[in-house]
Amino acid sequence: MLTPQARAALDAMAGEMPVTHPSFDIEADRAAARKLAARQPKEPVAVVRDVDADGVPCRLYVPEGADGVVVLLHGGGFVFHDVDVYDAAARRLANRSGLAVLSVDYRRPPEHRFPAAPDDVDTALAWLARHAAEEGLEGSVSVLGDSAGANLALVAALRNPGRFAAVVLIYPFLDPEADYESYRTEAHGMDASEGEWYWRQYAASDADRSHPDLAPLRSDRLHTLPPTLVVTGEHDPLRDEGERLVGELAELGVDVVGTRYLGQVHGFWRHFQVFPQAEPLTRQVAGFLRTHL
To answer: Which residues are catalytic?
Structure first.
């Protein structure tokens, strides 16, 4: 059963033009998201500044006494959002966890298709490894992403085995095949055709759709993952692929925790002013990250 807040959010979205509509304007949608994000309340963090990670724009948040770093990879179907849209979420994550947050502004399709985004994440990670001491970012490094950002976070961990102390994947967008029951029973806010639209923007070719750096459920390195938290929403079309990942990791012996948030739809973590469950989820994530420092 949907929570009242989730139902109200879906009702508010009902009149919006879907991404699959021929008149849909990607740039206008990006601008609208930035405008909306600019009106969100922003928690103060001791240090907030933009950094150039070898050509990849990032924003660094350092709370007082930070003793580790979490790399944040934003969602948005690979196509939408940026560090400005995720500014409020990054601040809350830094303050709740006591960790520095490096929010990565990776390149997006359709202007920059796969593998631009995961390559940018690798570039930012290499910059962090070289500059951690001078930036005051000593300590363990973890990675977190939501939706498409969770895909990138998982790929980063698979590309860089042993690099992260923990991985957090919030309603991950993992499988371009989308052959899951939840796409049929929980098509709230996004259906299979819209999911396919995002994959078409991201993949540079049909062959890319089976590449494990794009479709990480195909990876033969899943067993290399560090402790991993996977969060799903009960009424999210992506629910089943996230929970499939949990099952596979458990069978492989990975230290994995899977949490399904009942009554929730896709995207609830970032919209803390709408969904009261966003705060307990952020605190759960913070606790998981601190457990694995």
So the answer is: 147, 236, 266
All residues at 6 or more sequence positions from 22 whose CB lies less than 8 Å from its CB, including other chains: none
CB contact at 8 A, 165 and 138: no
- The span from the first CA to the last CA of the chain, in angstroms, equals 36
Decide: 231 and 244 in contact? Cβ < 8 Å: no
pTM: 0.98
CA 70, CA 86: separation in Å to the nearest integer? 14
Residue 136 has pLDDT above 90, yes or no: no
The CA distance from 208 to 199, in Å, is 10
pLDDT tens digits for range 61-101:
999 999 999 999 999 999 999 999 999 999 999 999 999 99
Nearest alpha-carbon partner for 88 in 277, 286, 269: 269
Beta bridge partners of 68: 140
% of the chain residues with pLDDT over 90: 95
Query: Rounded CA gap, 234 and 108, in Å?
Result: 28
Q: Which of 216, 228, 210 is nearest to 155 (CA)?
A: 216
Phi, psi of 76 (to 5 degrees): 125, 25
Q: Is 108 helix (H, G, I), strand (E, B) or coil?
A: coil
Mark 164-182 as b/e (b = at least 16 C-beta within 10 Å): bbbbbbbbbbbbbebebeb
Distance separating alpha carbons of residues 129 and 135, to the nearest angstrom: 10
Apex 177 CA angle, 7 and 125, nearest 5? 85
pLDDT at 15: 81
